[in-house]
Design brief:
The chain has 223 residues and is α/β, with parallel strands linked by helices. The chain has eleven helices and six strands. Strands 2-1-3-4-5-6 form a six-stranded parallel β-sheet, with helices on both faces. Helix 5 links the parallel strand 5 and strand 6. Helix 2 packs parallel to helix 3. The protein is globular and about 50 Å long.
Amino acid sequence: MIETKSIRVIIVEDFKLTRVGLRCALNTNPDLEVIAESEDAIDGLKKIENLKPDVILMDLGLPEMNGIEAILKVREFSKDVKIIALTSHDREEEVRAALSSGANAYCLKDIDPEKLALVIKDVNNGACWIDPIVADIALKSIPKIDDPAILGENAVNHTKVPLTEREFEVLKHLVEGKSNTEIAEELIVSVHTAKAHVCSILQKMCVNDRVQAAVKAVKEGMV
């Protein structure tokens, strides 16, 4: 019988009670292993670089260096580690900053522990996830692209992104949070082909990552 490798998690959270609660909840799941925890970003960055976890739970409201700054620092030395941004706030400005920081998922701290475990597993497999409340705030904070105040009377409507029919199919799966492997299975193509479609979509939509593509697609009614 082949043993599955546990997903190695590091928690960066300044409140000890929250930290302990997260560690205890996640360690009850046989597929997850909390390998380290930190109460601030400076110590957290050192542990992340040295221990190379699979997934990071990053609080956004950290002292001195906040979580968004820490995520940007992590991305300077690792593009592959999965980062889940945790926040107790739902302020628009924080949500917008978090969405552009490079995290793979965005959760409010009141998320059910079992749901968080599922999110960690999905994100580790390549999916993106946004808490419905966070997504709603993000969508409301983005100006409508067809607003005359933004476009002007004679401006061109840029919602018409030149995607192919197959790319629109892939985009729908992106919005559903599916990984490249899941998209490949759905469309009966290779993972390499699915990844190529995703890269093309990001380029044509002028966005940096899958989360931004999903938010833009929903906001502009592309799917």
